[in-house]
C-alpha cells in the first residue's frame, strides 16, 4: 500500500502529457536551458571559457535563425 488515496500503482503526479500547455512549454524551455548549460560546461572544460563577444555572436546567430523560422518567442 502506498499510503495515499490512489489505488496501488497510480500516482497523484500528472504525466507530462496531461500538463496545461503553458506548463509543458515552460518545462520544455527549462530542459533546453539545462541541456545547453551542460554543453557549455563541457565545451568550456575542453576549450576554456567563452569570451563575452563570442557569447553575443552566438546569441545573435540564434536570434537570426529564430526570426527566419518565424518564431515569436525570441528573447
From TrEMBL:
Residues 1-30 are annotated as: Disordered. This is CopG family transcriptional regulator. It comes from Actinomadura bangladeshensis.
